[in-house]
Design goal:
Helices cover 78% and strands 5% of the residues. It has 129 residues and is mainly alpha-helical. Strand 1 and strand 2 form a beta hairpin.
Length: 129
């Protein structure tokens, strides 16, 4: 379930990058285009954390995590990734690369992401103690 939902969100982020590439006529990289940098950053951050989360979630379920725990962490992770992407793409204000305002969505997103990864990791470690 969570792999499928997260794959759908990856498609949304990827289409957003593709639309930016077409709009700004950029084949590779971001061409120092401010909005492309944000689009690529949101997609890249998502792809950096999601495979590890899905692997940990599957291992936790296989190792006996109650289904309500699996769903709680799945939902928490999705909320975190959506919050982070919203912050990077729409809520934050910058002066060049300097963040001026709007980091609360990104901070909340990373807190949810790290909580999901950390607690599931602890659950799995405790299986072997």
């Amino acid at each position: 379930l969570y792999a499928a939902l997260l794959a759908c969100f990856l498609v949304v982020l990827s289409v957003y990058v593709i639309k930016g590439r077409r709009r700004y006529k950029i084949a590779l990289g971001d061409a120092s285009e401010y909005l492309m940098t944000r689009r690529i950053s949101a997609q890249r951050n998502f792809t950096e954390y999601t495979p590890t989360f899905l692997l940990l979630l599957a291992m936790a379920e296989y190792n006996g995590m109650p289904i309500h725990g699996v769903h709680a962490f799945g939902v928490l992770y999705i909320i975190g990734r959506m919050s982070h992407a919203y912050g990077v793409l729409f809520a934050e204000q910058y002066d060049g690369q300097k963040l001026l305002a709007g980091a609360k969505f990104r901070v909340c997103g990373m807190a949810c992401t790290f909580a999901s990864l950390g607690i599931i990791s602890l659950f799995l470690l405790l299986q072997y103690i």
